[in-house]
Specification:
The complex is a heterodimer of chains A (207) and B (302).
Chain A (H helix, E strand, L loop, with lengths): L5 E3 L3 H23 L15 H26 L7 H8 L1 H5 L14 H23 L11 H31 L3 H7 L1 E3 H7 L1 H8 L2
Antiparallel strand pairs in A: 1-2
Chain B lengths: L8 E4 L16 E6 L8 H9 L26 E9 L4 E9 L8 H5 L6 E4 L4 E3 L9 H5 L6 E2 L6 E2 L5 H4 L6 H5 L5 E5 H17 L6 E3 L9 E5 L19 H7 L2 H23 L4 H17 L1
Parallel strand pairs in B: 2-11
Antiparallel strand pairs in B: 1-5, 2-9, 3-4, 5-6, 7-8, 10-11
Classes of the chains: A mainly alpha (207), B alpha+beta (302).
Chain lengths: 207, 302
């Protein structure tokens, strides 16, 4: 059996950072959704009941925002949008139909991944700020009621958007085999890199 | 506090199915506060504190008669004093309004609450907080158009006037009504109270208060605590009583169609992912090349 060429993609710290964010996100999303709609209130049981969910959710969110800030510092440079990203976006049908050979050559990240990255940046920043504005019992009383109302509405809308973004992100990792391994073990196969990120492969190996 | 039977509950927070509907003979009640008869003695505040066994901390004088200065988790009703200068008539009026929960027919607190059954409305119209189900999130504060609910600093539960739902359920009037020495607060069926209020308005108009009227704002479906005001045409002068209270459209949007639609979008996108996988199969770079290798080999054989 020949072992495929493994190419390092994520360092230990990058992976730790990603999975810390992911765990915080799942906990924040589940606790948030439990108070989002009555049909999901039973999720509060995962956190020790209604009051505990209310107590924990903001702290989980705060930790998530902090560890995510680490991700932003690590990865923002790889996520700068470039000219051929526009073309990639136009051909999104090819991207989801496994016709990557028709797409412009992709570097470390494709345009879809970059969009998810920036969506997460905007959403987590918004969730952090709006969440603090109606965080009881600590901060909500310090702000006018109209600010609290706008913050509450924005928080719910932004949370919905980030959950949709996360569904896309998680599904992409399930669909594109080898990606999850890259984030778990840190390496990807050469074939994976050549198919999904050829420009990145050339950049790091010269091949 | 909730002491009425479940059959009397007509609305329940964070509940999407109907409450029991069989009992229909209930009478809507109302407390009528005739501001023109109030002398500001605060006996109602004391009676409230006595009956409900709550004791607020002794505060400090803030330069006005309001004492305590605001509603709190331990003070469910507060007399608000306003020195009103009528520039047209060139005279000074002392307005005293007993503030507290208005028991809206369409309660913003109940609409905003995420905890099933933490806020209920009875068939008699009383809106009650059930503290054992309260999670302390403060959404009721966000939803209330009258700035009434208060979160206790001791236990992080929400509190407000219960309209003495425990007393009313056994045929008694609320404690504040019982104690009022001038008869400024009356209690009965909403119908009777409206009739009584109309008589009072006629009387006040005869005495020259042309702006007199009943405060039973339609924007919240009417209330089960109503005021007779000498200046009903400008309720704001009574310590900021809102002229047209309604559940904020921001709260309406937050708790209205948006959330079910957002849940639907989440479900649909997860399902779309699943079906995409079923149709496309895995996107497997390693398998792809094996496949193309074998195809190439196959062609070579030919």
């Amino acid at each position: 059996m020949n072992i495929p060429n493994q190419i390092p993609r994520y360092s230990d710290n990058e992976r730790l950072n990603h999975w810390l964010t992911a765990i915080c996100f799942m906990l924040a999303a589940l606790s948030g959704l439990s108070l989002f709609h009555p049909s999901l209130f039973w999720l509060t049981n995962l956190f020790g009941g209604g009051p505990w969910t209310r107590i924990l959710h903001p702290f989980i969110g705060l930790v998530m925002a902090l560890v995510f800030a680490g991700m932003v510092l690590r990865f923002w440079q790889h996520n700068k949008l470039q000219d051929n990203d526009r073309q990639w976006m136009k051909q999104w049908r090819d991207a989801i139909s496994n016709r990557e050979d028709r797409l412009p050559e992709v570097g470390r990240y494709n345009a879809g991944q970059k969009m998810i990255f920036w969506l997460m940046v905007v959403c987590i920043a918004t969730l952090l700020v709006t969440g603090i504005l109606f965080w009881r019992p600590w901060f909500a009383d310090a702000f006018p009621i109209v600010v609290v109302r706008i913050a509450t509405l924005l928080h719910a809308v932004t949370a919905s958007i980030i959950v949709l973004g996360a569904i896309v992100h998680i599904y992409a990792a399930i669909w594109v085999k080898g990606s999850l391994g890259g984030m778990l073990g840190g390496t990807v196969s050469e074939k994976w890199a050549r198919k999904h990120h050829p420009a990145w492969l050339r950049e790091i190996t010269g091949k | 506090m909730s002491s009425l039977q479940t059959l009397d509950i007509t609305q329940r927070s964070a509940t999407t199915t109907p409450s029991p509907q069989v009992r229909t003979a209930g009478v809507e009640v109302a407390k009528l506060i005739d501001v023109s008869k109030c002398i500001g003695c605060k006996a109602c505040q004391v009676a409230c504190s006595e009956w409900n066994d709550i004791r607020d901390v002794v505060g400090t004088n803030v330069g006005v008669y309001d004492n305590p200065a605001d509603l709190s988790a331990d003070s469910w009703t507060v007399m608000r004093f306003t020195e009103y200068e009528d520039k047209e008539q060139n005279h000074l009026e002392w307005l005293i309004r007993k503030d507290g929960c208005m028991h809206c027919a369409d309660p913003g607190c109940l609409k905003a609450c995420p905890s099933p059954g933490a806020i209920v409305q009875y068939s008699n119209g009383i809106v009650d907080f059930v503290e054992e189900h309260c999670i302390g999130c403060g959404s009721c504060v966000t939803g209330c158009p009258f700035n009434v609910p208060r979160i206790s600093k001791k236990d992080n539960k929400a509190y407000k006037c219960t309209l003495c739902s425990d007393r009313v359920s056994v045929g008694l009037e609320p404690a504040c009504v019982k104690t009022c020495p001038t008869g400024a607060i009356t209690f009965g069926s909403k119908e009777d109270m409206l009739e009584h209020a109309a008589e009072r308005v006629v009387d006040l108009k005869e005495r020259g208060y042309q702006g007199a009227g009943v405060y039973d704002p339609a924007g919240v479906g009417g209330t089960h605590v109503m005021y007779v005001l000498k200046h009903a045409d400008k309720p704001e002068i009574y310590a900021g009583l809102p002229a047209n209270p309604a559940i904020s459209p921001l709260v309406g949007l937050w708790k209205g169609a948006f959330k079910p639609l957002a849940l639907l979008a989440m479900g649909v996108s997860a399902l779309a992912g699943f079906f995409h996988y079923v149709k496309m199969g895995p996107n497997d770079a390693d398998a792809d090349e094996e496949k193309s290798d074998s195809t190439a080999a196959h062609q070579e054989q030919k």
